[in-house]
Design a protein that fits this description.
By secondary structure, the protein is of the alpha/beta class. The protein has 2 domains: 184 residues, Medium-chain alcohol dehydrogenases, catalytic domain (Quinone Oxidoreductase, Chain A, domain 1), CATH 3.90.180; 138 residues, NAD(P)-binding Rossmann-like Domain (Rossmann fold), CATH 3.40.50. 28% of the residues lie in helices and 28% in strands. Bound molecules: zinc ion (2 copies).
Length: 351
């Protein structure tokens, strides 16, 4: 049996590099050597045990995290048709059953039997030398897209899903709450979707500056300025057409609804980790505001890969730290200690 090294989480705050078998390759499976593996805030929350899916049993240990990756095909099963060894690839957010009603009607992101890569009901993730994925969940990485951008396809696709669900269209004003990688990518993608003005909020100037460098129109440091005042100042109106809540803050969610115009849409792409009380549901009703929840990235890989391939989307400026592959324990310490100046941390394998 062939083995590889993987960095696995055995329990809260217990992550170790261990030798594990390389998963058996089924007829339709693709074995990928990991070249880049991004560190997500979700990974950190699993590592610390704070994530609600650790507490409610949706995540069991030991598990191998890592759902933002790019790599090279090392081997393919006998029935694989679209890939050959040496191909550059990225992998989907999750692995769905392929047979249930949701899968058959094309909504495989909500397949009840789905295993999310490296998170909930974890499919073994990319904090490892190799990942095995069914061919149907693997996408070719165009030659013109770097492995760095390839590893950002997953968060970018999630961000795009929030922009699409918010219904951002040409001329819209858009408020994006939160300046993590998803928030910044969503703001950039709202701009690419034709928004006339995109504002992003956050608490760290360093991260807001990254968003401005990518072409977002205005940044609001919520420590220094009220969001309502900033909306008025930048749009000359009291409310925006679309809000994307990517901060996971209950206060910001409430404010998002208040700042959304009648008939507008708030899309939520964050976890709150709590039951929210005192939620003004009538505010939504009276305002005819649509609230959309966003999980996963169904159908968003192709447009993101196309945007990256033609040079319209480059998220590599968000990479603020690099470590060799299988050094996630160091990356986690970085997340804890350098929150002010960290956006995306990337682990690098060979290639
Ligand atoms: Zn993630
Ligand atoms: Zn299914």
């Amino acid at each position: 049996m062939k083995t590889m090294q993987a960095e696995r989480i055995f329990g809260p705050m217990d992550m170790r590099v261990v030798e594990v078998p390389i998963p058996e390759l089924g007829d339709h499976d693709v074995l990928c050597r990991v070249v880049r593996s991004g560190v997500c805030g979700t990974d950190y929350a699993i590592y610390t045990g704070e994530f609600r899916f650790v507490k409610n049993g949706g995540i069991t240990f030991p598990m191998t995290p890592g759902h933002e990756w790019s790599g090279v095909v090392a081997d393919v099963g006998s029935a694989v048709e679209r890939f050959a060894p040496g191909d550059r690839v990225v992998g989907d957010t999750g692995v769905a059953c392929g047979h249930c009603n949701e899968c058959l009607v094309g909504n495989y992101g909500v397949c009840a039997k789905a295993r999310a890569v490296g998170t909930i009901n974890a499919w073994p993730g990319a904090y490892a030398e190799y990942v095995v994925m069914p061919e149907r969940h693997v996408f070719p990485l165009p030659d013109s897209v770097s492995f760095d951008n390839g590893a950002m396809v997953e968060p970018a696709a999630t961000a795009l899903f929030s922009v699409v669900k918010a219904g951002v269209s040409i001329g819209d004003t858009v408020l994006v709450q939160g300046s993590g990688p998803i928030g910044i990518a969503a703001a950039k993608l709202a701009k690419l979707s034709g928004a006339s003005k995109v504002l992003i909020t956050g608490r760290k100037d360093f991260k807001l500056q990254k968003a401005l460098e990518l072409g977002v129109d205005a940044a609001v440091n919520t420590q220094k300025e009220s969001i309502a005042e900033a909306v008025l100042r930048h749009t000359k109106e009291k409310q925006v057409d679309r809000v994307i809540e990517a901060a996971g803050s209950v206060e910001l969610l409430k404010e998002s609804i208040a700042l959304c115009r009648p008939g507008g849409t708030v899309s939520v792409v964050a976890f709150y980790e709590r039951i929210v009380e005192q939620f003004d549901i009538d505010g939504l009703v009276f305002g005819d505001v649509t609230l959309r929840a966003v999980a996963g990235s169904l159908g968003m890989y192709k447009p993101i890969l196309r945007l990256m391939a033609c040079g319209m989307l480059d998220l590599t400026p968000l990479i603020t730290g690099r470590y060799p592959l299988l050094n996630a324990h160091k990356a986690m310490a970085d997340i804890r200690d350098r929150n002010d100046t960290r956006v995306k941390i990337m682990m690098e394998g060979e290639g």
